[in-house]
Amino acid sequence: MIAEHNTILCETNGDSHIIDLTSNVQETVAESGINTGQAALLVHGSTAALSTLEYEPGLVNHDIRTAMERLAPHDAYYKHEETWQDDNGHSHVRASTVGPSLALPIVDGFIPLGTWQQIVLIDFDTRPRKRTVHLSMIGIGRS
Amino acid sequence: MIAEHNTILCETNGDSHIIDLTSNVQETVAESGINTGQAALLVHGSTAALSTLEYEPGLVNHDIRTAMERLAPHDAYYKHEETWQDDNGHSHVRASTVGPSLALPIVDGFIPLGTWQQIVLIDFDTRPRKRTVHLSMIGIGRS
Amino acid sequence: MIAEHNTILCETNGDSHIIDLTSNVQETVAESGINTGQAALLVHGSTAALSTLEYEPGLVNHDIRTAMERLAPHDAYYKHEETWQDDNGHSHVRASTVGPSLALPIVDGFIPLGTWQQIVLIDFDTRPRKRTVHLSMIGIGRS
Predict the structure, then answer these.
(1) Closest of A11, A37, A6 to residue A24, by C-alpha
(2) Residues of A with CB below 8 A from C143's CB?
(3) CB contact, 8 Å: B102 with chain A?
(4) Taking CB atoms and an 8 Å cutoff, what residues of chain B touch C125?
(5) A26 touches chain B (CB under 8 A)
(6) Contact status, residue A40 vs residue C104, Cβ threshold 8 Å
(7) Mutant choice from B32, B52, B65, B96 vs C, greatest count of C C-beta within 10 A
């Protein structure tokens, strides 16, 4: 049985910047030597989220942001901003709704994704951030 | 230690068609022989999502669809559609928001769900699709 | 290899009441003796959800609730209520959208969260509820 953890680091611009983590995740899984098992991914911090998405410019630069504006407009009133005098109440709400974690099967040594399905980090914060994604993998190696 | 993977296949009508996967998942977990552990579920493709839901006709045929129309109306403008000349920008946005994966505890040989809590696939695409759900299970057997 | 399960119990007021589970989860993980591995968390029932959130009063008492009203207003029409003659159609829709489960890495014996990132249960039901969160942990101990 193999159990390993690793981190993926990235820099974002904030403002719903979406980063494609697929290659990083697949390489980290491959290096673990696990053939059959699971990866648990968690983004560190409460203003970013993890999901999967077709990584093409329309969705990445426009459509996700537009829908998130419907759910949590950046210029609505947020009581969060009375606590901290900052401007990222909408960032927190969006991140908690999309969610911070992914449970990913490892099958034949990699994560079985669709061709147009990428693992993404969405940074909802209002400023550039350095982000850490924790990745723990557990399973059995090639027999 | 047991580590296994399996797939669940289903056919959907698209347009927020919701499929109850509970029996399939519970049977697959039972066949693995795992008593205590975890199952990671991931839907293949970027226009469907996994969650849990009370599987009754009102929620399944009406209420989820209506809320998703508020988040990502099917007739809004999506830049995605300039990339592909298709019509499923809203499908992608909805699927990424609800999320593609579930992390499910295995307790005493099955997934401990509420009576009115079913494991569901929601297909947000605009046409019928054949869907694959990857399921990896890891844990220890009955001692 | 260690595989254990446990439950966390809490009482909520319903109506988007948010409970901070972080201490409970971290203590349960510590007691398992796992150093490197994963925790899968699942809330029992279809009207509550799990996520992470900065646990401060503005987000907890106001901002999450306000955004969920945009997604699924409590006073909209829900066909669910024709099935059961109850009043919690919006609760189901919100819970399924946020999601019932979390996949959490265990690194050096605990869940690596941000300082302002707490593990939370959000109870979307319309009345006080006793809630059970199932937690299964798997991994390897300190060597």
Answers:
(1) A6
(2) none
(3) yes
(4) none
(5) no
(6) yes
(7) B52
Burial A9-41 (b: 16+ CB within 10 A, else e): ebebebebbbbebeebbbebbeebebbbbbbbb
Residue-level pLDDT at B52: 98
Number of structural domains chain B divides into: 1
B138 in Cβ contact with A39 (< 8 Å): no
Whether C82 and chain B come into contact, CB under 8 Å, resolves to yes
Q: What is the pLDDT along chain C (143 residues), one digit of tens a residue?
A: 999 999 999 999 999 999 999 999 999 999 999 999 999 999 999 999 999 999 999 999 999 999 999 999 999 999 999 888 889 999 999 999 999 999 999 999 999 999 999 999 999 999 999 999 999 999 999 87
Which uninterrupted H or E stretch holds C9?
A: strand C2-12
Number of helices (H), then strands (E), belonging to chain A: the values are 5, 7
Could you report the per-residue pLDDT of A29-81, keeping only the tens digit for each? 999 999 999 999 999 999 999 999 999 999 999 999 999 999 999 999 999 99
Residues facing A102 on adjacent strands? A41
Of B105, B108, B119, B109, the C-alpha closest to B40 is B105
* Domain of A31, in residue numbers: 2-141
pTM: 0.98
Residue from A90, A93, A140 whose CB has the most chain C CBs within 10 Å, to mutate: A93
- Give the B:C interface size as CB pairs under 8 Å: 128
d(CA A62, CA B30): 44
Q: How far is CA B105 from CA A80, B113, C100, C135, in A?
A: 33, 10, 12, 6
Interface predicted TM-score of the whole assembly (ipTM), two decimals: 0.97
Q: Would the CB atoms of A140 and B3 count as touching at under 8 Å?
A: yes
The CA-atom distances, in angstroms, between A109 and each of A30, B2, B3, C1, C91 are 6, 16, 13, 20, 39
B43: β partners: B133
The CATH number linked to C87 is 2.60.120.460
CB atoms within 10 A of CB B49: 29
Closest CA of chain B from A27, distance in Å: 19
H-only helix segments in chain B: 22-32, 57-58, 64-71, 80-84, 89-98
